[in-house]
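Extended Data, panel c. Modelled sequence:
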Amino acid sequence: MAVREVNNPMSEFLEKTPSSKEFMEEAATVMPGGVTANIKHFEPHPIVMKYAKGSSVTDVDDNKYIDYLMSYGSLVTGHGHEKIKRAINEQVEQDGTWLFGTPHHLEVEMGKRLQTYFPSMERLRYTNSGTEATLLSLRLAAAHTGKHKVAKFEGHYHGGYDQMLISVNPSVDEAGEAHAPNALPESKGMHNSHVQNTLILPFNDLKACEALLREQQDEIGAVMLEPVQGGIIPADATFMQGLREVTKELGIVLIFDEVKTGFRMGLGGAQTVYGVSPDLTTLGKAVGGGFPIGIVGGKKEIIMNSAPTAGADVFDSSQSKNTSAKDVLFHSGTYNGHPMILAAGMAVIDILEQEIGNVIEKTQRLKTGIDDLFHHYKVQGGTVGIGSIFSVVLTNKEKIQNYRDLQQTDLATRKEIDFRLLQKGIYTKPMSRYSVSTSHTEEDIDKTIMAFDQVLQEVFEGPRF
């Protein structure tokens, strides 16, 4: 693949976004690097948005884009959906407040609806983010098994806390053997004990996973994975079935992190597609329609470890002294089960019950359009993903199976394609996945395919032109 010098996408980007650059320079005087979440940053500077509605976003230079970032998949109904706004307003009007600080009816109503689509959630708890949900799931697993080491998969992300911020995006040169990856920290400030207590497994390699888990079965209390890595690389069905069987045999809690896949592979998430029931499930992102939420659900015998009726609580010294706080699994949070957010979540389910099939169909049409263009221009690669999220990869591999396969793709050209698409009004953060929403129209899909057509012509040359 030869690169054509049609224009310089980075120069065009800078010319198009001067106000974003100026904003970020000011922001850097307030926040480190100008951002309050590292994921929002990219070079030479992020695009700063000032307005969004439906499937579009508008930046501070008045450039309008079709948005496929959708807040990293959170906005499955798009920006500012009227039904969600109405649900929030009705909740406040009906209840008179947006926060009780006590139990309320929406906690039960939302929970029952989730149980309809996730039967594995015999009991559940609300948190404020997917990160909090995965953190709680590990505590629940440890309380249930009495084993405190955990296993995760290379390239899988479960939140920014120490125990799981291991081997998320490691250097392949340092990552060790593919069948037995090294555990590598992904941040400053992490104690080495987290590296020692987190086993790294190879995704989609059942034989290697089983060997590693059997070797440490007396120490490993939980295996956590994204059933679809990064929301784009699906697990093989035989791998999922085999992992379920092995963890059950070894007394290890199997946790599906469906923060990305919940509501995006269908209302029942990846576990419904695979027909595999985990012991625990974590949800977030799309479930809240753009508001912060997390959920942990699973087997009653595991979740009930968090019931306050089991004994003394850390905040309640009036409880019986026959037990102490350490005898109860602690989980709390002022905003857990926030009424306004649960009202939004109920509206999301209402919308998706009617439209999820159409969203997945539109996603497939977009993917097919991109794949056809790659084939037409004889570019090696195409789309990868299932449901309403996917990514674009440039590779001669027939199938992307794991993190290392993804690292061997042509990342530099993918980045160039992303910046060229920005010039044509197609937005996702460079190198990020695409998330389609109920608000994307057929016209949006057509415009996006046309933009890909133009970009592929700009990037690749040959006799076919």
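Residues 339-376 form the longest helix (38 residues). This feature is highlighted in the accompanying rendering.
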